[in-house]
Fold this protein.
Amino acid sequence: MTDIPHQSPGIPSEAYRDILGRIAIPIIAVVAAFLVGLVAVMAMGVSLDRAVSAFINGAFGSAYSISASLNRSVSLALVGIGFVIAARAGLTNVGGEGQIAMGGMIATALCLAPGMAELPFGLSFIVPLLGGAIAGGVWGAIAGFLKVRAGANEVITTLLLSFIAIWLLYWSVQSENLLRQPMTSSATLPESLSIPASTQVPLLTGSYASPVTWGLPLTIVIAIAAAIILSRSVFGFNLKAIGFNPVAAARAGIAVGAGVVTALFVAGALGGLAGALMLQGEQYSLKAGFSSNYGFDGLVVGLLARNSITGVIAGALLFGFMRSGGISMEMMASVPSALVGVIQGLIVVSIAGAAYFLDRRSLR
Amino acid sequence: MDQGTAVQGVSAPAGNTEPQPLLTLSGVGKRFGEFSALADIDISFKSHEAHCLLGENGAGKSTLCNLVFGIHQPTSGAMQLEGASYAPANPRDAMRHGVAMVHQHFSLINELPVIDNLLIGKKFGRLNRKAEAEKLMALATEFGLELAPFDVVGDLSVGQRQRVEIVKCLMQRPRLLILDEPTAVLLPEEINSLLDVCSRVAESGCAVVMVTHKLAEIARVADRVTVLRGGRAVARSAEPSNDMDMLVRAMISRDGEAGANHNFGVSALPPRDPTPHRGPRPEAMQIDNLSFVDEIGVKRLDSVTLTIAEGEIVGIAGVEGNGQSELGSILAGLARATSGRWFAAGREMTAAKPRQITAAGVGVIPEDRHLVASIGQLSLADNLQLGRMQGFARYGLIDRKRQREEARTLMQRFDVRAPDSQSAFSTLSGGNQQKAVLARELTTPNLRFLLAAHPTRGLDIGAIEAVYTFIRQAADQNTGVLLISSELDELLAVADRIVVFYRGRIIGERSAKSDNRDDIGSLMSGKTP
Amino acid sequence: MTMELFVVFLASSVRLAIPLLFAATGEYVSERAGIVNMSVEGMMLTGAFGGALGTAMTGSPYFGLLFAVVFVLPIALLQSVLTNTLRANQVVTGIGINILVLGLTTLGYRQFFGNRSREMITGFNAWSPPFLGDLPVIGPIFHQAGLAYLAVAIIITLAWFMSRTGAGVALRAAGEDPHAVAISGVPVIALRHGAVLFTGLMAALGGAFLSIAEIHTFTEGMTRGAGYLAIVAVIFGNWRIWRIVLACLLFGAATALQFQLPAIGVQLPNALLIMMPYLLALLAVAGLVGRQIAPRALAQPFWK
């Protein structure tokens, strides 16, 4: 039986399913996970009022906290957008963590490079940003190259590359020959020097009271560009064709290998840019554990967005603000910020599980 | 179709010496969404009988088998097994009831040896492979099957794999054995031994149900035949050898012209100028001593040399699996020849990528429409322009309006029927999908050569005629055509000359005249005069 | 390096490899059945937590083991239901479970251990098997916690099970072509559930070994990627059990070298040694070290 036409559900049910899938399920999952979090807070014997107000304060309470949350969201959004772009070509980029590390590491090296701080026209911070992006991109492209050349599964290679990058970064801040600051005493921390002020990404407001950086508008531009490229460009169309059916795409003359490498390069570059922004806009010096799970969180944001850039933005904001709120909750209400991890984990697991009820019908 | 209403077996008169039916289907139907694959089927299968289901592609034969084997569940009607209600929820359920099935696509694990494949699902505890192998050899010999229990399945030929599959079914001592188009993949000599096996299985007391669309097989093995068309049982016979004409007429829809040539669609073609070569013509395509060895080291193509002139249609005949698919893959740019060279319109294409092949003016209708020729999830318009999006782009962005207009033009020109150019490709019928693929490939810029592999497989008559017409038109406009097909009648009707593939070699060449039909047939089975 | 130091090095290589051996052989079973559990990391962490908690509460490491298994089973069940029943994306559910478990164990740790975090819990005593332990020179290598010998027993049984029983064959087949296996009448989904639960059991033992037998306490996120390393061992071991065992021992040796090299005056960055397993595995999947053949249906949900 070769020619049974697939069932074509009518428009209303499709639209209904779309609304259910893209909006209702995530909202239900988020609300339910937060309720579980509240119950946990009560079980710990902490005043609910105190915990919640600490959380809200930490996330939205001041210009400073909103800025900090937004900066976190920026990193998550960049990794998430990269994930969605690679996913369009049928690729799962699990390597955000390592791409961030490579971006941060190369950006540090460039920021500290002699003469960099003196570059004019803002090049002093733009060049390291670009360098970080390219470093992350190369790290992603390696996985693409291995897939095209050796047929290596990118889930495996990006994960392996991630660990390699993390330990490279660790090495670089442990060794004085690399990025570690000069050892003046035995108490000198294993981290890099602080980067010069001119290589830092400028703040939007110019004031450290609201330290949101130019990374935010940059990310918004990137998000819009990504949405347009995915939906309307030849490149986006080719990625989609490759993702659905690489053999047919190749037969029709689409360069599948180049598409795969490019998609992973772009995904990696966005991760690398996130890393460079984290370093140049927030942390200012490189330490072990630099990527601090933003790669994995960003991957989750991208996956839960179910291929939509808007979804990535929403998820990145949610997770970004949650992180800030959680840190504040730990400091002000002595509720471990690990609770935020529990809530995030619940959200991920329930949304991933709920996909079944959406996919089942389209697959049958 | 009055024959269809005469239900036999359900209420056989008492005292009849005929065996009682083992399995009875009453009013069984199956819908997939809007599509009715099977409707109002009344049929019964008896022990000791080989019952053939005859019908063209898409007639509902496979669906019927899948219902009996529990892969799908009927949407109407009921089944009874020895008088008791029978509604298998899944294949396992069906097997518990003594129903076994040999699928068109084998359910063997290539990575495992034959013996492990045979024991999957039968034994969960400790395996004594040697002892089990001996038992299985005995069983296989009983039905005249050869078996090499310790060979890895991935290394076996298709015929050998099918034997493993059959042994796997016989191991359960089934009461009903279903074979879904078992001969489609076999060599002529293998077919006869398979039919012998079927007869032996039926003699042993099993009810055998065999799906086919080949009349010769029916004459040889069938005790009873039911003809399906458009999802309905349109004729049945308990003496197939005597009712051949009636069966053929039932199988194809138009009564009058049926008897003479059952390969419908072809007869409607206007005759083509039998002498297209007036003086020498430039070459559209040239294959020079091409060989291909696959990854397990089997030589699939062996020193093939062939030249096609502009405007010429050359057919490749052969039982499937004799190198045609490999040749198709190489010419499509999806595989690279191990040695030898090939040229399109004088330019060497041996190491070219698909894009370069297309750019050289080569159109390709691959044999696998779903996997290679199209992307089901994309729209019809996108499939019509697959790989040509750059032509609609400004600053890298696609001008959707222009693309849609162009798609509508193509749809009209090639009679692709769909609600809209934006319809998902997978929702189109097979015929319209194929016409869309043709539309794309025949509008390849500077088309000089067209490769068409099994272009009418699984299509209805209307679509088949359209495909032939389009291919003929292309040839009339000086495109060289290589037509690969397993249907000899198709090749005889459409091509100018026919080369026969046997074990990866060109074993002979004849002009496409029906006088040569028997000659070509014996070449296909490897017999050179 | 003196012979004595070398034997110490070998003994610690084996000791450091044991948690990996448990987790990797567990993950091997799942992957042969077609499922990648990124959550091995979370399962190990849960096992480490359960082991520490049980031992601290009862004073007996054996109860600790029991706790570890009891704690991990619901996590494994969650992974199994998500991947097998709900056919969710295996990578995302695994990572989600890891995030969840890191949060849960940290919360639980603060709740139950609080300030007692530095207190050591009772561990297993190392044990020397008769004869082997008495061998001259190499005897100390066999001086290991009893769990190590449990691991050996399980691995041998597992190797036998996978190659010599019908269930083992069916399980391997389910990772290559689940549809074919289903048609042969094997309940593929049930088989895959079983595989994931077995992975959970093994990861629990591996995690518990870390907290009870190795570190003698629980710390937040203490597995530090050991679960991912187990997955890497499966990849580097090319999905063959004995090669996976070798990979685990090799990775154990790489870790042990960190402590040995300074002792013999070789300066090599730690990071380089820790990176070794990942680098080797990457070279392997890149086709530079033999040919890797993953199960064909790995990480693909099975829809009937």
In short: Chain A touches chain B through 29 residues (CB under 8 Å). Chain A has 13 helices and no strands. Residues 62 and 210 of chain A are 8 Å apart (CA to CA).
